[in-house]
Amino acid sequence: MTDANEAMLVCMRGIWKQFGPVIANQGVDFDLKPGEIHALLGENGAGKSTLMRILYGLYRADAGSIAVGGAEVAIHSPRDAIALGIGMVTQHFALVPPLSVAENIILGQERGLRLDLRTAEGKVASAAKRFGLSVDPRARVRDLSVGQRQRVEILKVLHRNARVLILDEPTAVLTPQEIEQLFETLLRLKTEGVSVVFISHKLHEVMRITDRVTVMRAGKVVGTTATHQMSPSELARMMVGQTIVGVSKPPRTGQGSVVLKLEDVWANDDKGVPILKGVSLEVNTGEILGIAGVAGNGQTALSEVLEGTRPSTRGRMWVCGKDITNASPDQVMQAGVGRVPEDRHESVIDEMTVAENMAIEHIDEFSRFGLLRHAQIRQHAERLIAEYQIKARPNDRVRTLSGGNMQKVILARVLERNPRAIVVSQPTRGLDISATEYVHGKLLEQRQKGAAVLLISEDLDEILKLADRVAVIYNGKIISVMPAEEANPERLGLLMAGVH
Amino acid sequence: MDAPLVGFLVGLIAATLRVATPLLFATLGELYSERSGVLNLGIEGIMFLGAFAGFAAAARAEAAGWDAYLWIGLLVAALAGILMGLLMALLTVTLGLNQHVSGLGVTLLCTGLSLFGFRLVFGESAVLPRITPFATVNPLPGVPVLGTILDQHLLTYVAFSVLVPLGAWVLYRTHFGLNLRAVGENPEAADAAGIPVFRVRTIALTAGSALMAIGGAFLSLAQLGAFTPGIIAGRGWVCIALVIFARWDPVRALLGAVLFGGVFALQLRLQAQGVQLPYELLLALPYLITIAALAVAGRNAPYPGAYLKPYRRE
Ligand SMILES: Nc1ncnc2c1ncn2[C@@H]1O[C@H](COP(=O)(O)OP(=O)(O)OP(=O)(O)O)[C@@H](O)[C@H]1O
Ligand SMILES: [Mg+2]
Questions:
Q1: Interface pTM, i.e. ipTM
Q2: CA–CA–CA angle A395, A398, A401 (5° rounding)
Q3: 3-state SS of chain B?
Q4: Neighboring chain A residues of B179 at a CB cutoff of 8 Å
Q5: How confident is the model at residue B293 (pLDDT cuts 50, 70, 90)?
Q6: Check whether domain A245-336+419-500 has CATH 3.40.50.300, yes or no
Q7: Predicted confidence (pLDDT) at residue A89 exceeds the cutoff of 70
Q8: Per-residue pLDDT for A242 more than 80?
Q9: What is the pLDDT of residues A91-130, one digit of tens each?
């Protein structure tokens, strides 16, 4: 090992990992210095999570070596990684909701027979104080907000005296204020000598807090550089391999008429507790209305009510003057509403082919005497695949598609009907820069064509970029609606936290 | 209160505790499996195998003139349960197979093994082989009321006063219990926290199956002193319901076992008293009550988060 490598806290060399036909990591080298914040960038499926899951022992590499503190190590499980001072906050949180914060934090850590919760709670409280991560050790995790849960995750890692903290897309679900808090914590940890690996699709975040950046593309490292030597567009070019043309919102043409209207809509959650408490909205032709809010404030219920999959208990809804209150999903669709639901996997049938999924919502048009007309279904799919540049063949199972391509299938299916109103939820969650730009471009195109778009998103950047007007949902109510010109992250962030 | 009524009630309470004992063993066993995220539908068969293996071993040991023949029987039953628990763990944890299919398979296997084993050990004799069962212990002999109620088997005392508090303590107050709950709720999280998910599930299944087998052996070694094909009679399935009724809590499991045991004992007493009700209805009564209790208490039941889900790392 050379001298240069000895200064590194973590050295990964020649990492290979294959999942069936997919090679997620092809000879990846990755270094981490002590006390640095190191960004890991790359498009969807570039292999970032895989590389870090290997470092944390969740996956085992097919080939390659890992050295920590200069000594070669074998990491077979998270237990090994933890012992080496490596901790990870995964893309989907690894918490046990019915347990308390303290229980979650000491989980798998303490030895011995008896569980001493009192002492554990004390320790957690003092660690929380030390790192500036305020959280009540005795609270049940299921009662916490997303931001609080993330603090628990980070505390869990730090409580084990980790020297390396891996964060996989940590900001995707946070409010601007929570992101600020997270960044403060990270900078504080840096001064304590902790190294941080920061995975994100948001370039401005990477520019702001990271020292170095490693860019991956299709399972390989494209390069590692000091962050301040790069510009966001250079980073984007490195990630994608070509220049990305960002879309931007053209000015609105004229005043539209009301397409989608909600009046005092109420709905209950699955347990019968009100989750929407009197929502009133109007969306006009050629307009995008953005609904901003922290996860769990009624967004999901709102889109479900609009799609006809959740009954409203009070209030009325119209599309172009036609009453669609408690109409079935089919009737809603017939009335001209297109929908891109929050969970991609729920709006497609994973085990069916791309062609079948594209035809399924209008299957009667593709059948005669109850028999499917396969040739027609296939032609239809081929046309959409070409038009929407989907990287898939008509007979591929949707399950095998990447998130971005799956979203394109859903968009193609919805948009080819020229809907008059479109309800989209979290349309770019987890998508990389180019896929995100593509989806944004399509939504703006619909706006230009005169559709009324209701955009429900937890991603403020997305809302600010696309929306003509912004509404903030909090605790089942729309607490504010403002023109996009008056909206900014600070103002929206406060409203999203219920401060107004 | 008049004397016959007091006598009836005292007898009923004593019988309730007796009937509830095997249920309590098996319910706690199932509860531990399910808390780890595995539904063990092998329960009915494992109880049956426990009843058979315990009886066969005890009968042989008794014939050989060993004093501790009943304890040997109990030990053999527990070992048989452990073996089946390991098999269940191999199928559902290591191989990650469907838990319903695996459990029913284990029940069929245990049933077949026991019936076959019975013929192998005892032949096709016309008289039912018998052993002298466990005697009861009575801390207050001759004392009215309490003396009758407390005249119980040692295993009943163990189930009620040791196993339930111990079970609750392990679940809520030890690191193993915390790991167990975490594994059953969110194995990914548990794994990421460094908990050996497979090992915890295997331990829960194995210990749970041993308890089920002991529950079955209680019937043959303490209650009957014999083994018959109808000895379990669906008690295992009742325990599955009791776990849900108990909301996966050992103390509530005790309540459930006593409730079912009470109705079962009442039904027996009413039959013995010659009450003018159809015999079939009386027989069905405990099961109907179970369904009713389940319908009331089982709504919004807090199923473990990873219930029925095999865990795979990749
Ligand atoms: N457990 C798995 N089984 C099969 N394939 C997998 C698995 N995990 C990852 N892959 C595949 O490996 C490739 C790399 O995935 P990975 O999750 O590492 O990408 P990523 O860079 O983290 O992407 P994203 O930005 O979407 O999170 C993808 O093609 C993915 O489908
Ligand atoms: Mg990832």
A1: 0.86
A2: 105
A3: CCHHHHHHHHHHHHHHHHHHHHHHHHHHHHHHHHHCCCCCCCHHHHHHHHHHHHHHHHHHHHHCCCCCHHHHHHHHHHHHHHHHHHHHHHHHHHCCCCHHHHHHHHHHHHHHHHHHHHHHHHCCCCCCCCCCCCCCECCCCCCCCHHHHCCECHHHHHHHHHHHHHHHHHHHHEHHHHHHHHHHHCHHHHHHCCCCHHHHHHHHHHHHHHHHHHHHHHHHHHHHCCCCCCCCCCHHHHHHHHHHHCCCCHHHHHHHHHHHHHHHHHHHHHHHCCCCCCHHHHHHHHHHHHHHHHHHHCCCCCCCCCCCCCCCCC
A4: 107-108
A5: confident
A6: yes
A7: yes
A8: no
A9: 778 899 999 999 999 998 877 788 888 988 998 998 888 8
* pLDDT tier for residue B1 given thresholds of 50, 70 and 90: low
Give B-chain residues touching A93 at CB under 8 angstroms. 189
Task: For residue A323, list its beta bridge partners.
Answer: A318
Whether residue A42 has its Cβ less than 6 Å from ligand 1? yes
Tokens of A409: 């299938």
- Residue range A86-92: mean pLDDT, rounded: 88
Q: What is the pLDDT of residue A1?
A: 43
How many Cβ atoms from other residues are within 10 Å of residue B117's Cβ? 16
Helix (H) or strand (E) holding A296: none
Complete DSSP assignment for A75-104 = --SHHHHHHTTEEEE-SS----TTSBHHHH
Confirm if A431 and A44 have CB atoms less than 8 A apart: yes
Q: Under an 8 A CB cutoff, do B192 and A115 touch?
A: no
The predicted pLDDT at position A55 comes to 97
Give tens-digit pLDDT for B52-106: 999 999 999 999 999 999 999 999 999 999 999 999 999 999 999 999 999 999 9
Check CB contact under 8 Å for A112 and B188. Answer: no
Q: Tokens 């066969």, residue?
A: B56
Residue written as token pair 């891109």: A340
Longest dimension (CA), chain B: 69
Q: From the CB of A102, is ligand 1 less than 6 Å away?
A: no
Pocket lining: A49 vs ligand 1, CB cutoff 6 Å: yes
pLDDT in tens, A437-485: 989 999 999 999 999 999 999 888 899 999 999 999 999 999 999 999 9
Q: Any bridge partners for residue A474, and if so which?
A: A477
Contacts A114 to B, Cβ<8 Å: 173-175
Q: With an 8 Å Cβ cutoff, are A108 and B179 in contact? A: yes
Locate B84 and state its tokens: 């089946």
Q: What amino acid is encoded at A459 in this protein?
A: D
Please give the class, per CATH, of domain A3-240.
alpha beta
User: What does the pLDDT average to over B123-127?
Assistant: 83
pLDDT value of residue A11: 96
**Are A340 and A332 contacting, i.e. CB atoms less than 8 angstroms apart?**
no
B71 or A247: which leads in pLDDT? B71
Chain A's closest residue to B313, CA to CA, is: A58
CB-based contact A79 B177, cutoff 8 Å: no
Q: Residue A23: what pLDDT?
A: 92
pLDDT-derived band of residue A2, with 50, 70 and 90 as boundaries? very low
Site to substitute for ligand 1 among A16, A17, A18, A19, most atoms within 8 A of C-beta: A19
Taking a C-beta distance cutoff of 8 angstroms, is the pair A279, A267 a contact? no
The tokens 């029913």 sit on which residue?
A: B104
Nearest 10 degrees: Cα torsion B123, B127, B131, B135:
150
Confidence at B289, pLDDT banded by 50, 70, 90: confident
Of the candidates A324, A321, A294, the one whose C-alpha atom is nearest the C-alpha of residue A308 is A324
Cross-strand bridge partners of residue A478: A473
